[in-house]
Amino acid sequence: MMGGLFYTGTRILDKSRTAVAPLERLKILLQVQNPHNIQYNGTIQGLKYIWRTEGLRGLFKGNGTNCARIVPNSAVKFFSYEQASSGILWLYRRQSGNEDAQLTPVLRLGAGACAGIIAMSATYPMDMVRGRITVQTANSPYQYRGMFHALSTVYRQEGFRALYKGWLPSVIGVVPYVGLNFSVYESLKDWLIKSRPFGLGEDQELGVVTRLACGAAAGTVGQTVAYPLDVIRRRMQMVGWKDASTIVRGQGGNSVEYTGMIDAFRKTVHSEGFGALYKGLVPNSVKVVPSIAIAFVSYEVVKDILGVEMRISD
């Protein structure tokens, strides 16, 4: 039964990802496009350009890999968060001597960060090749035929370490992104339950719309704070890709090479300005409401169906 419910929950997540796949692809294209070969200038123009040049399939390029990645990523993330929360709470109660103590927002941040790092590291090669598949166009010199073909090609041509390009900024970005997601989400829920605003009765539970709002707010805060690290991660993933399209390499055939995360930050800001660290933020912000919010609500609904009484913060 639990396996079936988890499958149902992950199918809901896949559908939410698919619904915002065009915005996700546009975000990555904006993040990595060569400043000397601008093809995407904004959300509306970018979506129209993809439709005109690549058709309907172009809007969903890379979505299959993203959906395949999200199942193990979500499973590891939420399981790790529950385990980390329980372990941190046990240590906190033992240290404070208060058996009724609850997790503070800071401790929730730590538990969320631990879960995010574990899940991200476990599935990072899938995310790396997803970025490359997403950036491919019909004019790319070489085509990855799918996730497994991309994984084997990168491994064969660039080595195992290439599958973890951009891993460091991803790890650093997990703290504000995943950590704040859980922390803000749970803190908002606690505030609503305790203060009972907007006419909430004493015995009323939070509805789906209220949970959606909490999830959307949490996702917006987390992704905005961590977004520059996401841009750097995507750019580092493109380094060494000799068959990249002109979107990455530019008309002259030369793409920017980075020796590491700090070098990537320095060269990006120096050549394109500080605003380059937020390229693609608009489509990313638009998609955060349905994708992150639905993920949290699906998680809560599945837990309710399973009869799990323990809340995340417990």
TrEMBL record:
Keyword set includes Transport: yes
InterPro entries in the cross-refs: MCP (IPR002067), MCP_dom_sf (IPR023395), MCP_transmembrane (IPR018108)
UniProt record, GO biological process: organic anion transport; organophosphate ester transport; transmembrane transport
Recorded topology in the membrane: Multi-pass membrane protein
Entry-linked PROSITE patterns: SOLCAR (PS50920)
Ranges of the Solcar repeats in the UniProt entry: 3-87, 103-191, 206-305
Highest taxon listed in the record's lineage: Eukaryota
Record keywords, A-Z: Membrane, Mitochondrion, Mitochondrion inner membrane, Repeat, Transmembrane, Transmembrane helix, Transport
Listed GO CC annotations: mitochondrial inner membrane
UniProt keyword Protein biosynthesis present: no
Coiled-coil ranges from the UniProt annotation: none
Subcellular location: Mitochondrion inner membrane
PANTHER family tied to this protein: SOLUTE CARRIER FAMILY 25
Entry similarity comment: Belongs to the mitochondrial carrier (TC 2.A.29) family.
Protein name listed in UniProt: Mitochondrial carrier protein
The species this protein was found in: Asparagus officinalis
Lineage of source species: Eukaryota, Viridiplantae, Streptophyta, Embryophyta, Tracheophyta
